[in-house]
Amino acid sequence: MTAVFPSKNKTSMNKSNKLYWKTAAYPVEHIEVRLVLNSYTDNDNLYVGLESRSENNPERWEAYTDITINCHSLPPFHAYVDSRDCNRHVHDFLIHNRIAESAGLECQGFKMFRFNPDRLKDLAPEQFKTISTRLPPQSDMIKDIVYREERFPHTHGLR
User: Fold this and answer.
1) Is the pTM of this model over 0.70?
2) Please, how many CA atoms are within 13 Å of residue 47, restricted to the half-sphere of its CB?
3) Is the pLDDT of residue 139 over 90?
4) What whole-number distance in Å separates Cα of residue 19 and Cα of residue 30?
5) Tens digit of pLDDT for each residue in 111-120?
6) How many CA atoms lie within 13 A of 158 on its CB side?
């Protein structure tokens, strides 16, 4: 399956591998974070989370927040995103950093996003290798996946 993501030439998008999370608490801060990738054990759906630097030891990273939730079996690189509470800026974070884009569907108030495999590989290469081994074989011949009577990938607003 080949997904098309927004042009890498847009100046408003983060092109580096450094990620900064906008906190939901006041005063708003931007803290350095890194991506964590894994798969949910019951259905191999994509798990995405964030780690931040430890306040006690800046050389250590510790769990910060979960970005995805596990809800229904999904096509590869698709996941529902949790934007509640401290994650209220997550949609902007994913789009601005070219990590994912909205797939146009919702389930119980959670929006589905299509994650950019190339960007995931850039941001978490070792974890990407691990999750890639659990994916079904990908073929450039597959253009659409039908899931819950919806066709993937959606191409509205994309080049």
Assistant:
1) yes
2) 18
3) no
4) 9
5) 999 999 999 9
6) 17
Q: Contact at 8 Å (CB) between 155 and 4?
A: yes
pLDDT 10s digits, 36-53: 999 999 999 999 999 999
Strands 150-152 and 145-147, sheet pairing: antiparallel
Average pLDDT rounded to a whole number, residues 41-66: 94
Q: Is the peptide bond before 153 cis (omega within 30 degrees of 0)?
A: yes
Element (H or E) spanning 92, and its range?
A: helix 90-96
Contacts made by residues 133-136, CB under 8 angstroms, sequence distance 24+ = 134/39, 134/44, 135/44, 135/76, 136/76
**Whether the Cβ atoms of residue 2 and residue 139 lie closer than 8 Å to each other:** no
